Amino acid sequence: MSEFVMRNNEVVPKLTIEKFFNGGREVLSLEVLAGHSGFPRVIPQAFFHRPGLAIAGFFEHFPAGRIQVVGATETAYLNSLSPERRVQIWRRLFEAGVVCAIVTQPLALPPEVPRLAEEFKAVLLKSALPVPELIARGLLVLHDQTAPQASLHGTMVGVAGVGVLLTGEPGVGKSETALGLVRRGATLIADDMTKLTVSPYGVLMGRPVPYMAAYMEIRGLGLLHIPSLYGVAAVRSEMPLDLIVTLLKTNPEGGCDCTGADVRTWSVLGRDVAHQVVPVVPGRDFVNIVETAAFAHRMRAAGIDAAASLDECVKAHHRSVGVKNG
To answer: At residue 161, what are phi and psi to the nearest 5 degrees?
Structure first.
């Protein structure tokens, strides 16, 4: 069975209750009250919902596929009803298709409710957090688990606050260039394979494959543990991706743009990332070139474009010459 589904024409990870629980157990202070058998079930809609109207008996447009959060307000209303009526309402919720519910007042639950959860193979969780904080934190957990993802072969480093992904054919020198940058103060994000995702704020983020975090593989040297060599400040767990630099063994088609006016982009997860192609020629100092490319990108982001400035200077010169000749 595929671990991914299509959402808004994008491939996103499939979210099971087990994945949500394991990812949010600590940050959401979650514990299981009942329904372990329902852990493999998929959460159809990765959102939270407070079932106040459904508890009051109105089930039209009820989003049963969302994670239901039963807080103090819902519990106070349920406690105003008879025990039999409370059990009927919970049964109705599970019959409507609720697969996962989180309660913040577990001591107020009738003992029949956990048995109902087991019967319907729904998962009943409890949290020690107040509902507003639970939902605020939970939305970040859900986004992290369901955001569109991509993987690119390449080594990512942080250079002067600019996230740079080095790509190119195997053996072109990506890791060696990154290692030289780390020696000059850059930070390693990921080596060989970079995982990319979109943050809750729409920023494209790069991070390492978990088992390769903080490691680099250099031909002839093998695996290197970067924090042991250069200190813990030499690595980061994630960083925004700002610039992609491709090391190309042959010149780009059409020759090299020496002015930098030809701005390339690389589309990743629907977002355009600045892209520069650097021809690989023996004797070139790629560490210096990539570092300078990062500085130049930072200048362009601040509105300082060397190519545009030169173009204006040339135009102004020709205008002045034309006036004198006229």
So the answer is: 85, 0
Decide: 227 and 237 in contact? Cβ < 8 Å. Answer: no
Q: What is the Cα–Cα distance from 274 to 267, expressed in whole angstroms?
A: 9
CA distance 258 to 114: 69
Q: What pTM was estimated for this model as a whole? A: 0.72
What does the pLDDT look like over 25-73, one tens digit per residue? 999 999 999 999 999 999 999 999 999 999 999 999 999 999 999 999 9
The two tokens of residue 156 are: 């990512």
**CA atoms of 101 and 116, how far apart (whole Å):** 12
Torsions phi, psi for 177 (to 5 deg): -65, -45
Q: Which helix (H) or strand (E) holds 214?
A: none
Strands (E), 94-192: 100-103, 123-127, 149-153, 155-159, 162-168, 187-190
